[in-house]
Write a structure and sequence with these properties.
This protein is of the alpha/beta class and 261 residues long. It has nine helices and eight strands.
Length: 261
């Protein structure tokens, strides 16, 4: 009898623990350790979300007086200043990165509804700036941020989208990593990007790592296949989830895509 009770406790307890702990399993807020790595022409940027939450990041201005802009949405354990500091971004483009709620110096607590709403607010704030060309806004998402970028592209006019290690839904990713859990019943933050992708007609560049074990290329391909606009699929040989950006081919693909926008 005792073993039946133990099995029942495990069967109930493990899913219950996953339900209550899922924010800690999905979001890994990172502090700002330093800003000395940012380029000298990077300026602090603050966007106030519709609910009054203050979101903070940086804008690295491009060379043109009215520059095209990349709006960057990072991974689930990323503080965006490190990506913004990379010298391989095309110099004529303005690069914008705002830390998610609870990340860096941004206020609040991360969650799907909040992050997707925040993305719209960031876009709208950038589109109003006199030093940005609103007809040449490109959204850029990496890992977790790809679903956010896909949703933004479906809701606002953008000139293109770059998705690095994208996925079709967090449910599909969860099922791969936690096959013993009823993921579809437990997950509150679903980040289902497929329906938005079906509405998106702007040009798309997808970059994946050939050996990505966190977001397998087949999950990226599921999103890519339903994208309604012109699209380019780029595989970086022997690259893993966290090593994609080390490849010259990665940055060459991005530069070529942006040059055509």
């Amino acid at each position: 009898m005792e073993w039946l009770i133990l099995i029942a406790a495990i069967a109930i307890g493990v899913p219950a623990a996953a339900w209550f702990a899922q924010e800690r399993l999905i979001f890994f807020p990172q502090p700002i350790a330093s800003t000395t790595h940012l380029p000298v022409h990077a300026s602090p940027l603050e966007v106030v979300a519709p609910d009054g939450t203050h979101l903070r990041g940086w804008i690295v201005k491009g060379a043109a007086a009215r520059a095209p802009v990349v709006i960057y949405f990072g991974g689930n354990a990323e503080e965006v200043s490190w990506t913004l500091s990379d010298a391989r971004w095309p110099r004529d483009w303005t690069i914008v990165g705002v830390n998610y709620r609870g990340y860096g110096a941004s206020e609040g607590v991360p969650g799907e509804a909040a992050l997707t709403a925040d993305a719209l607010a960031i876009h709208d704030a950038m589109a109003k700036r006199e030093d940005i060309d609103p007809s040449r806004i490109v959204v850029f998402g990496r890992s977790l941020g790809t679903a956010i970028a896909v949703h933004l592209a479906a809701e606002r006019p953008v000139a293109g989208a770059v998705l690095v290690s994208p996925y079709d839904s967090l449910i599909a990713i969860g099922r791969k990593h936690y096959p013993w859990l009823p993921v579809s019943m437990l997950l509150r933050h679903r980040f289902d990007a497929l329906e938005d992708a079906k509405r998106n007609t702007m040009p798309l560049l997808v970059i994946v790592g050939e050996t990505d074990s966190i977001i397998p290329p087949e999950r990226s391909r599921a999103l890519f296949d339903v994208w309604a606009g012109p699209k380019t699929w780029q595989v970086v040989p022997r690259a893993e989830h966290n090593s994609l950006g080390n490849s010259p081919a990665f940055w060459e693909g991005i530069a070529h895509f942006l040059a055509e926008r």
